[in-house]
Amino acid sequence: MKDSSPFAPFRHRAFLSYWLVGLAANFGWLIQTVGASWLMTSMHGAPELVALVQTSIALPLMLFSLPAGAIADTFGRRRTVMWSQGALCLISAMLAGAAFLGLLSPWGLLGFTFLIGTAKAMNNPAWQSMVSELVPKSDLPASVALNSIGFNLARSVGPAIGGVLVASVGAFSAFVVNAAANLFVLVSASRWQSPARDDRLPPEAIGSAMMAGLRYVGLSPIHLTVFLRGFLFNLAGISLMALMPLVARDQLGGGPLTYGLLLGGFGVGAILGALGASRLRAMVSLEVNARICTLGYALGTALLGMSTVFPLSILAVMIAGAAWPVLLSSLNTTVQLSSPRWVLSRCLAIYQSCNFAGFAIGGWIWGMTAGQIGTGGALVAAAAGLLAVAAFGLVLPLRTLDTSRLDPHSRWSQPEPEIDMVPKSGPIITSIAYRIAEEDVEEFLSLMAERRRGRIRDGARRWTLSRDLLDPELWHERFKTPTWIETQRHHARRTVAGADIAARLKALHRGPDAGRVHYELVRPASPPPAHEPVLATEA
């Protein structure tokens, strides 16, 4: 099989197993969503509450994805998947029992779906970032596209199965299927082998890891642009999914089977779109790709809003379905390829949070809009919003990055302090002296601007660059880290790009000791009491 094949990642047995297990989980998830949405429709037909089912699932994915990403990066992705799958299995079983016994109210159903969304939020960053452990980087775009195909294969069949189950057995059966699917994932994940972890440094505190992730993406224009585009697209795009039960009931006069068939049509379109995604990526830039998909989704949304016949509605959801995975898988791939390994789960988590913020806010907005102007009018208004999102790309286009420069650079050797130190000793000031000729100052400052961004992204604080007043060729780069262990983490995070900047700076240096680093322990202004040991201050 050639590398250009969209199925090339299946050559890797570990990825094939991962994909099949994920397919089972997707079936359970989508069948559960059909059950929850139709149960709410039958209990309380108000558009606001029906749309809130999507919001109750999306809101925890927005709120808890970053802590989940920090946990996955810190404690291991496989372990995080197992914890979250166990929780999903338990909550789904409890929901099935409550539905079977008739104990659910509309708000009780929303509470259970919120808990399921919370467990899903804990699972997703770890699950998605595991892909890069299973395939080489050259196969990563195709692997992400195959994950999208798996999800949409389940979407094309799962909702119809869910509709049949709900119509013939009851909504509780959909929740039983989801519990069983998550149990299968839990058992399978317990048998997988995790890659060796770098345990030279102790695990990072969750709060510190979350801040490190936010700091990294906050200083990465590529990430910020992807996150904003994903949020805006999903803010308008969720209208189609959130209002689809109302389209099935009010515009088409159908029931749960009609709703399931509409979701299935969306899934079929998504599979066709994902199969053609690699060809589209090869033909156009990332920005043009995103613009085409946004316009296609807008067309499908508008057609669904205006349709009152089933064939046209199926065509509409297939058009939208073809556009949805191509755009989102392209954005997901961009995040994965633009993120160093040490922060990958957190970058994916923040991307996911932005997407689901769009889902949660959009689900509420379009539910309220449908209550005021009708389901069809709300969908047409959402299509207009999608046109605005496509136009936004003219102002802030998506860009790609040379991914090879994000590989870890492992040549840093940890210094051995000559004084007593513990991991929490600090603060630590790192200083580097450079002797730069006047004719090289402009290039030096340009490199230092890049280095400042990289230093702060990797955890440095209070970065400064100073020039000696009495010796103008002498420059000092300084930054602070709160503890000795954070200093070691900072240097361990260096990438090939950072090492390249360091080499170019070293080449500009005139004289001996090029790039020599000094580590200084900040001491208190007055000596400690006689009964206390002379150690570093705490950060």
Automatic annotation (TrEMBL):
What molecular function terms (GO) are annotated for this protein? transmembrane transporter activity
Q: Where is the Major facilitator superfamily (MFS) profile domain?
A: 14-400
Pfam families the UniProt entry points to:
MFS_3 (PF05977)
Query: What is one term from the GO cellular component aspect held by the record?
Result: plasma membrane
Its membrane topology is listed as: Multi-pass membrane protein
Upper lineage? Bacteria, Pseudomonadati, Pseudomonadota, Alphaproteobacteria, Rhodobacterales
Where do the TM regions start and end?
12-31, 51-75, 87-116, 160-187, 226-247, 259-276, 288-306, 312-331, 343-367, 373-396
The reply to whether Nucleotide-binding figures as a keyword in the UniProt entry is no
Where mainly located?
membrane
Q: Does the keyword Cell membrane apply?
A: yes
Enumerate the PANTHER family for this protein.
INTEGRAL MEMBRANE EFFLUX PROTEIN-RELATED, STAPHYLOFERRIN A TRANSPORTER
Which SUPFAM superfamilies does the record match to this protein? MFS general substrate transporter
Localization annotation: Cell membrane
Name of the protein this chain belongs to: MFS transporter
Q: Which UniProt keywords apply?
A: Cell membrane, Membrane, Transmembrane, Transmembrane helix, Transport
Q: Which domain of life is it from?
A: Bacteria
